[in-house]
Specification:
Blueprint: H1 2-7, E1 15-20, E2 25-30, E3 33-39, E4 52-54, E5 58-64, E6 72-80, E7 83-88, E8 103-106, H2 107-120, E9 125-130
Parallel strand pairs: 1-9, 7-8
Antiparallel strand pairs: 1-2, 2-3, 4-9, 5-6, 6-7
Length: about 130
């Protein structure tokens, strides 16, 4: 029994992901504590990133876009049909609007977020996106 207890992490507070479209920043909180702040890329031009409050409903360690030429979407966290937070190889665009609607992160940061979602579970993660 003691061995099992050591394998189960102690989880204090839920995970809150807050994306600010105007500043192209994502802040990640555990409870009320800011643990990460990263530049992102959201929708550019005629495309849009949905705003509002969401829960993740699907994750994929490596997803390939069916809409955009099989583009790689590493560490994807889907929050609305057709939209995900995921890693990108286009790191020079981070901090600027550049996507077709998804929220792009440096792949290392996308992996950290993906791991948090896996650890805490969909029900303990909230995503809010505001302009």
């Amino acid at each position: 029994m003691a061995e099992l207890e050591r394998q189960i992490p102690v989880l204090e507070g839920d995970i809150h992901v807050k994306v600010d479209i105007s500043d192209q920043i994502m802040n990640v909180y555990k409870g009320d504590t800011l643990v990460y702040s990263w530049f992102v890329s959201t929708a550019a031009g005629a495309y849009f990133t949905p705003t509002g409050k969401f829960k993740p409903y699907h994750t994929a360690k490596m997803h390939f876009s069916k809409q955009y030429d099989n583009s790689p979407m590493p560490y994807a966290v889907f929050f609305k049909e057709g939209f995900a937070i995921h890693g990108t190889e286009w790191v020079r665009s981070l901090g600027y609007k550049a996507s077709h609607g998804c929220v792009r992160l440096h792949t290392n940061n996308a992996q950290k977020l993906y791991n948090l979602v896996q650890q805490y579970g969909y029900h303990r993660v909230s995503i809010s996106i505001a302009s």
